[in-house]
Amino acid sequence: MENKHKITAAITGVSSYVPDTVLTNKDLEKMVDTTDEWITSRTGIKQRHILREPGKATSDMAAAAVEKLLAKKQIAKEEIELVICCSVTPDLIFPATSNIICDKVGLTNAWGYDLAAACSGFLFGLETASKFIETGKHKKVIVCGFDKMSSIIDYTDRNTCIIFGDGGGAVLLEPNTEGLGLLDSICKVDGSGREFLHQKAGGSLKPPTHETIDAREHFVYQEGKTVFKFATTNMADASAAIMERNNLTADDVNWLVAHQANKRIIDYTAQRMGLPSEKVLMNIEKYGNTTNGTLPLLLADYEKILKKGDTLIFATFGGGFTWGALYLKWAYDSN
């Protein structure tokens, strides 16, 4: 094992936060022309959490998760050196939500920034953060994946309002020399896919005006069938490719940690990897698609069953288009 002493970035702790308010499929039946059966059969979603409290934003959810993570790991605030916040619903266009999280938690020693890659953001964030660990630049880095999707969802549009929820999680990355942690990744983008999944107004291309607000252009726009087709193919391709590149068989993989956008896409990805359903982490029924929040929420929900040395394959697909897969060996046994 010539790589025994090579520094890798390992996840050493995880926490999550979801708001108290729950929006069920039955609730949505009263809001738009849909049914619980239709939503469940097509997406696997039964409910989602919504941040309803006035004046609360993405940073509030992330700050709660970060505080929980520090308490759990018994780490002093000044030990955290970098915070990357992966989100498409930042509190403000600027400053970065990462800065606001650091202020709310009191991370006076940390610097940070936001990373926006739609639903692939958290995976891209892990890949980015790992380099600060691998180079020896930092010893303790937090990556947050959070979205307040309810802030950009049109609750009169039955195609999108059934899918998304609010919440997410945070992970701590630390150096590892046992061959655990992030071992490989494939990250891809194709900007020509932007027309099929985007927010029409609010950026520099189309700043807010009375007209854009009246035209309801500050919400998620999605061409469902096209996105489904691209997501299914690309997420499965990336996952199969990372296994092949690292000579991994289905027997070698303990868990698929897939972006929770649609149960059918996750099932197809697992099938392509040759994985049985019992190796697939799934919680889409509880939270819906929390965009940057789905992967850390999975880790937090299933942390107790993850064992040191377990092989995890992360897979994701998001607007942009963005997609990728990541090969990680779990670094600890949960108490």
Please count the helical segments: 10
Kindly identify the CATH topology of the largest domain.
Peroxisomal Thiolase, Chain A, domain 1
Q: What is the approximate shape?
A: globular
How do the helices and strands follow one another from N- to C-terminus? EEHHEHEHEHEEEEHEHEHHHEE
Main beta-sheet strand count, sense and barrel state = 5 strands, mixed
CATH architecture of the largest domain: 3-Layer(aba) Sandwich
How are the strands ordered across the major sheet?
Answer: 1-7-6-4-5
- Superfamily at the CATH H level of the largest domain? Thiolase/Chalcone synthase
Rg result? 19 Å
**How many β-strand stretches?**
13
- The CATH class of the largest domain, by name, is Alpha Beta
Helix content: 25-40%
- Count structural domains: 2
Low-confidence stretches: none
Features:
alpha/beta; 24% strand; Peroxisomal Thiolase, Chain A, domain 1; four-stranded mixed sheet; five-stranded mixed sheet
Provide an overview of this structure.
- α3 packs across α4 and α7 (224-245) runs parallel beside α8.
- The longest helix is centred in the C-terminal third of the chain and has 22 residues, at 224-245.
- The chain folds into 2 domains: 8-179, 3-Layer(aba) Sandwich (Peroxisomal Thiolase, Chain A, domain 1), CATH 3.40.47.10; 183-329, Thiolase/Chalcone synthase (Peroxisomal Thiolase, Chain A, domain 1).
- It has 335 residues and is an alpha/beta fold.
- A 5-stranded mixed beta sheet has the order 1-7-6-4-5, sandwiched between helices. A 4-stranded mixed beta sheet has the order 8-13-12-11, with helices on both faces.
- β12 (311-318) and β13 form a beta hairpin.
- The protein contains 10 helices and 13 strands.
- The relative contact order is 0.19.
- Helices cover 31% and strands 24% of the residues.
- The model has no long low-confidence stretch (mean pLDDT 97).
